Structures are given as C-alpha cells and as structure tokens.
Amino acid sequence: MAPSEDIIFEPAYTPNKNWVKELDSRLMDATLSSFLAPKNDNRVVTLCRPFAVLPKTSYSSPVTLPLGLAYLGAVLEKAGYKTKIIDATGEQQPVKIKRSSNNLYNLQGLTSEEILEKIDPNTFIFGISLMFSSEWFAHRTFIDEIKKKYPKIIIVAGGEHSSSIPEYVLKNCPSIDYIIRGEGEFSMLEFSYNMFHGKNTSNIPGICFIDNENKFIDNGLSKRIEHIDKLPRPAWHLLKPENYFTNSFTIGLAKGKLRNMPILATRGCPYQCTFCSSPSMWTTRYIMRDPKEIVDEIEWLIKEYEANDFEFFDLTAVIKKSWILDFCSELKKREINNITWQLPVGTRSEALDEETLKAIYNSGCAYICYAPESGSKKSLNITKKRVKLDRLVESIKAAAKIGHTVKLNFIIGFPHETLIDCLKSVFFGIYCSFRFGIYDVNFAMFSPYPGSELFEKLKREKKLSIDDNYFRKLMAYQDVTQPHSYCERVSGRTIAILRFIGFSLCYIGIYITRPTRIYKLFKNFFHCCSRFFRTTVDIRNHFCCHITVVINFRQGFFDSIKIYITLK
C-alpha cells in the first residue's frame, strides 16, 4: 500500500458564509481574566443535557458522557462562576425508559419532572444542549415546563440543532431567551459575564435572540477557538463518570469491563459532505490539538478516574498522517501500555495506510470505524464525500490483516439515488464482510438534517417543510417500522428491505470468516438480557400490546436484545 501524504483541502461549503467570524487568537488565560464572575455571588449557571428521545419501537440507545458540557463547565468554573451540570440522559442508574404521554416516542433517562427537581433554585442562567433535531418536539415541551416553573431563569440553547435553524427554534419555542451558535466556550463565558454584571448582551459573537420588536437578531457563529489546548480540561467532577462505567455505556467496542472516557483530539471537519450538518456548528475550519497535550490528558484521566479506554469523538479524527504518528510515538515514549483507545465515530482512509495502521494498533487502538457512506461512485461524487473506494478497500484490507476491529457506516436513500446506487452500497458492505471479516456494518436511512446542504436543497424544492412531522421523520434512520424516503426513485419500504438484507448477509459473512465469534455472540446475548431486565420500562395503564423480540447485531455479536412493544 502506497504511503499517504498529508492532505491539503480546498475551500469547503459553508452555509451562510456571512455568519462566520474570524478566529479568536486570544490566549485563554487573558480571556478568562476579562470575564470573571462577580465576587460573593451565589447565583448559579446550570448546564443540562436533556433526556434522549427514541422511536417507540426502541428501548436502548448508546450514551456517552457529555463532553461539550464538561468543557463549558470547566471554562465557567475557571472564571469563578458557580456551575452545575444535569446529565439527564446518563447519570441515572439504572437507565430508565418511559413512553411519552402522547404515546408517540420513548424517553431515555430522567423525566421532565425529575430534571425540574434537580434545578438549583439559585440558577440564574440555564444552558441546554440541543444536538439532535429528531428530539426537538419533545425537548421544546420540556423547555416550556422549565420556564413555567422558573420564569425568571434565563434559558440559553446551544448545539447543532439550535445553531442550524436559530430563528425557527426561537420563534417555535419563545421560552428560549437566547441561542449561542457554534463553538460555545468563549461566547457562553462572555454572555454569562455580561448577564451577571448587568451589561448589554446584544453584540456578543454567536448570540441570537428575538428583540422587543419581534425581530430576529443574529450575531453570526461564535468565534472559533484556535488555541484549544489552552482550554481547561473537561470538568468531569461535575458529572458522574462512575455511572457510565457501571452501565458499560460506549458506542465503540466493549471489551470486558472498560472504564471508558471520551476525548477530543480535533475540532471541526474540513470536508464538505452535502448531508452533514457540522458546518453550521463548526464551519469547515479544522483545528488539531498538540499530540503531547492529548497524551497529558490521557495520563490525567488514568490518574483521576482510573480510565483504561478512550473514545475519540472527533468529527474526523485521522486526517494528517504525521499528526497521528506523532500521537502514537508520544504514547510509546511515555510507556502508556495498559490502555485501549477507539475511533468509533467515523474516520477516513486516506491517512490510514499500512504504516499508520500498524502504529495505531501497537499503541492500543482497539476499534476503527470507517465512514464511506456509499458504495456508489456516483453518490460519492454528488454528495462531495471524496472517498476513493479502491483506496478504502486497501486500507480495510491492511487493517484486517494487522488485527484491527473494523466497522463500516453507510447511508442509503440519498435523494438522487436509484435502486442500483442503493444496491451498490449494500453489496459493497457484503463484499467487505465476506472478504475481510469486519466486525460491524451499519446501513442508515438518509435523513436531511438542518444545516446540511441537502436540507437546504430539499427545502428550496419544497420537498420538506420544517414542522413537527418533519422532525419525527428524522427518526426514520433508527426506526425500521416507519421508514420515510426522500428519494424519488426508491421507496421507504424498499430501503427498509435493503437494510434488512444488508445486515443479514453482512453478518453471515462476518460469522463465516470469524467463527470464534459465535462464542462471543452467546456470551453477550446473556449479558445483554440481564442488562435489559435491569432497565425500567413504564407501561402502566396499558393492557393490550404486541411484543416482538429483536436481536441487535453490533460489533459482530449480539450487543443487545430489544423488546419492541406496540401499545394499543
């Protein structure tokens, strides 16, 4: 396999380029000293990740520690603000699943009532993370409940959902006072300073709001933080990492009893995929941390939390070959040998040649997720994915030979696709499964998320309108019982059938090529049965239902067993 070169990127698509502000080159220490909290002020800044919203046919969802809120909390604490974090999705033990009152979806984690009880009465600013648009209709109701109980609290929303369609969010939910768009640490710090000191907040970069004349005010995206290594380390002491260790929450590969912690090595993504909403949050500016600083953080997590596994939640972790080799070299130099680390979100193959794959494997990398998204060259070109399938196959081949655990992510049903295009993705996944014995394949249904180029295109063509029905349709990617297609040539039912065929044949190939995993299958099957019965499912006041047992294949064995309950 030919050695990879460092990759140079051309200017990428950025929605509403006038939103983007110049990079903030100030050192973090200077920034913190400029926005200190008032002394002897008992008012609190409360940050919240709300409950997860699932299709009513689903009773499990991977949960990870809220890294973004941990960074926000660290910055606010460093500047002297009394800060608390409510992690409604994952801090509860065991995790509870409850059907919504309108019987339209399931809720995972703390209920609205339980979250309201946890809000400190001294809360002055309440910051809520709104990441996934598919959850909006439930989170909107929850925010209204906060405002009703605590009318004087200033509610600030952040995250990809609110960053992508800020005007709609503010007008659809008047209980939200402000939105911070984009990378939030500096903007939230300056906003808190101005609010606590009674200063004007209308000119802060990243701030959006509705003024007294019902006019939408947009100050653009927050300034990107260039010196991300200067940020304080995530405030994990404000959360409950032990609950995550106990519940074995991870989206990567669970091997034994992991004490798993999330970490960010980079921020942003330089690519311009038309289906991705990240440019509306991060722009296309890609910033890498110093490998030495990352290893410093790993050593700190080992010492403070006895962590032994690290999941890198970067949008695109491995882009520059020299950078990842420096990281592996630093781990080796410090003799950090008794850990594993993973790339579960989806990375690219360009820098993952044989040399790089050997280096990351020898440094403890346990899991790689490739994200080609399509096996059709036409689809890759149209969606600006820029993946070379032959190069990808070579990288997968090398990874399998070295011993890596590999996953592939695909999206089928893009608006332009034909049945042949969809079949190419399915057959490519099947080929890799039989040829290389990869561990996991995921076929997701295309969903047009706000902030993506395809979302704007479909909206211009009047093929979607922003309403609650649209937000519920975004759950189609994980709810096979209610598929919805934005593809004119392929129906939702056909895509659901293709997904079933793809999953089935892929795992037949995986088990044929790696028969020893049958043992892992049954071992994990019984383990997950016990986990399921520790989960509380509220089905009170329902007397008639259909029950279906569904086996969820993940990492090449049964990662979970789901009970689908259709209540009447």
How would you characterize this protein structure?
- This protein is an alpha/beta fold.
- It folds into three domains: 17-218, Cobalamin-binding domain (Rossmann fold), CATH 3.40.50.280; 250-514, tm_1862 like domain (pyruvate-formate lyase- activating enzyme, Alpha-Beta Horseshoe), CATH 3.80.30.20; 529-567, no CATH class.
- The protein is built from 19 helices and 21 strands.
- It has helices spanning 28-34, 67-78, 112-118, 136-149, 160-164, 166-172, 185-196, 241-247, 279-282, 291-305, 321-333, 354-362, 377-382, 389-402, 419-436, 453-460, 468-473, 492-513, 517-533; strands spanning 44-49, 52-55, 82-87, 96-99, 105-108, 123-129, 154-158, 178-180, 207-210, 216-218, 260-263, 266-267, 287-288, 309-312, 340-347, 365-373, 406-412, 440-445, 536-538, 545-554, 557-567.
List the helices and strands and how they pair.
Blueprint lengths: L27 H7 L9 E6 L2 E4 L11 H12 L3 E6 L8 E4 L5 E4 L3 H7 L4 E7 L6 H14 L4 E5 L1 H5 L1 H7 L5 E3 L4 H12 L10 E4 L5 E3 L22 H7 L12 E4 L2 E2 L11 H4 L4 E2 L2 H15 L3 E4 L8 H13 L6 E8 L6 H9 L2 E9 L3 H6 L6 H14 L3 E7 L6 H18 L3 E6 L7 H8 L7 H6 L18 H22 L3 H17 L2 E3 L6 E10 L2 E11 L1
Parallel strand pairs: 1-3, 1-6, 4-19, 6-7, 7-8, 11-14, 14-15, 15-16, 16-17, 17-18
Antiparallel strand pairs: 2-5, 4-5, 8-9, 9-10, 12-13, 20-21
